[in-house]
TrEMBL record:
Origin: domain of life: Eukaryota
Claim: Iron is one of the keywords in the record: no
Region of interest: Disordered: 1-20
Species assigned in the record: Rhynchophorus ferrugineus (Red palm weevil)
Protein name per the record: Uncharacterized protein
TM region positions: 35-56, 68-89, 109-126, 147-166, 178-195, 216-234, 254-274
Keywords carried by this UniProt record: Membrane, Transmembrane, Transmembrane helix
Length: 310
């Protein structure tokens, strides 16, 4: 996300791991935080895999709304792994160094996948709002939402190509933080939109449908809350870096704190789905082999529409 621009290699046209690790100071702290990061990332990956499995395995969860959770989990896996993969490739194939242009392009993959996570968890709430309030006026959306998902990926590929072209252009200073500007704009737009929906719902009389929408909004907003520290912190770091503020490296050394909070977004998502959605609760209990006599697991093989018709 944040990349230190200080020259750390003998050749100014190449970039080493130190640029992403915010300098050579506090190596012991960095080693410890890396170990903790591996543990958190591994657990988050496990939660994402479980979420992917249940949304594809059980009929009751194969609804349009949950497709956004599926894509969120897939992108979150890539978000968690992308940075490690880039640096692993640097070590294995390029002896720890990459040309600055290539490094600029590849290191921003983390931001693209974070941006996709923000989009898909936001669409999880927006989709439910469409279903509850204006489904009849959006029948084409019901049959074509997969094209929308495809267009989201296509747009990010285009953005990646644009940013990469900037990285490979003849600029005196390579802008490593271009893609995070896009992340910030996306986060603000979707957060405002979801808050506007929540305000609209709060003014309406409660019924079963609006209660379901309120649940989805609660889940989305708490995930956004876990992304807020990393969005704010890295924007501040980029501002400090551009203005050559003293002590930027010290602030960068503590960037692991908002990163850990962002990595934990999957934990709170799965927990909230377990607590607030009866079908996800059934699915998670079944996956974890927590058999309970008070639970009817056969409902997982029935769509919500079929349950309503019984």
């Amino acid at each position: 996300m944040f990349v230190n621009k200080t020259d750390m290699s003998e050749d100014p046209d190449y970039v080493s791991h130190g640029h992403h690790d915010h300098g050579a100071s506090w190596q012991n702290l960095r080693t410890a935080t890396t170990a903790i990061s591996i543990i958190i990332s591994f657990l988050a990956l496990l939660f994402d895999i479980i979420l992917i499995f249940v949304t594809k395995r059980y009929k009751a969860l194969k609804i349009r709304n949950n497709q956004y959770l599926f894509h969120y989990a897939c992108c979150n896996i890539l978000f968690l792994c992308s940075n490690s993969i880039v640096h692993l490739v640097m070590d294995v194939f390029f002896e720890g160094f990459l040309p600055k242009e290539w490094y600029c392009s590849l290191v921003q993959l983390e931001n693209y996948f974070l941006n996709l996570c923000i989009v898909f968890i936001g669409m999880y709430a927006i989709d439910e709002y469409i279903r509850v309030t204006c489904e009849k006026n959006f029948r084409s959306y019901n049959s074509g939402f997969r094209y929308f998902i495809f267009s989201v990926y296509a747009l990010h590929i285009i953005l990646m190509m644009i940013v990469s072209s900037v990285c490979f252009s003849h600029m005196e200073t390579v802008r490593f933080d271009i893609s995070f500007i896009i992340v910030t704009i996306t986060y603000v737009v979707f957060l405002v939109f979801v808050l506007k929906i929540k305000y609209t719902v709060a003014r309406r009389l409660y019924d079963t449908q609006t209660q379901l929408l309120s649940t989805v909004l609660e889940i989305t907003l708490i995930v956004y809350l876990f992304y807020l520290p990393v969005v704010v912190y890295y924007n501040l770091l980029n501002i400090f870096d551009v203005t050559d503020m003293e002590g930027t490296e010290i602030w960068a050394d503590f960037a692991f704190i908002p990163e850990y909070i962002a990595y934990c977004a999957t934990f709170i998502l799965v927990y909230k789905l377990y607590k607030l959605n009866k079908f996800f609760k059934l699915a998670f209990c079944k996956v974890m082999c927590q058999s309970r006599k008070d639970m009817d697991y056969s409902r997982l093989d029935t769509t919500p529409e079929e349950l309503c018709n019984k």
